[in-house]
Amino acid sequence: MTTDTLLGFLLWAGSSAGLMAISSFLLERFPPFQKIASKTRLYIVLGIVVLIPQLVNLIPLVPQSTWDTLQPIWEGLVTSVVVAITFITSEVTHDTDKSLRK
């Protein structure tokens, strides 16, 4: 499944693999979620995994013109993330290389 368009990304994010990857990534970094009892967290994640894929069924109700309007914003966001990842990788490589030279 392609994620080069906003619509493609939303369809991927609503799939089991995408949803688990995104929700795990976000929830693990959300300190208040970590303070919740283990069993309650289980039910929250179960609710997310069951309910959010149902929202994918609403995508066909959104007019194509809306997707066309949002596409440039999506492309800018993806470009920004790629640049940020490239910068971070460059910095890590630079720091690692500097520490190896010592």
Describe the structure.
The structure is a single chain. The protein is mostly helical and 102 residues long. The protein is built from 5 helices and no strands. The longest helix has 38 residues. It is flat, with a radius of gyration of 18 Å.
Topology:
Blueprint: H1 6-13, H2 16-28, H3 31-34, H4 38-55, H5 64-101
Characteristic key phrases:
single chain, about 100 residues, mainly alpha, 2 domains, 5 helices, about 80% helix, about 0% strand
Short description:
The protein is an all-alpha fold. The chain is built from five helices and no strands.
Q: How many helices does DSSP assign? A: 5
The coarse silhouette is flat
Distance between the amino and carboxyl termini? 45 Å
Give the class from helix and strand content and strand pairing. Answer: mainly alpha
Strand content bin: under 5%
Average pLDDT, all residues: 82
Low-pLDDT residue spans: none
Radius of gyration, CA atoms, in whole angstroms: 18 Å
Q: How many β-strand stretches?
A: 0
What's the number of domains?
Answer: 2
Q: Would you list the SSEs in sequence order as H and E?
A: HHHHH
Helix content: over 70%
Major sheet summary line: none
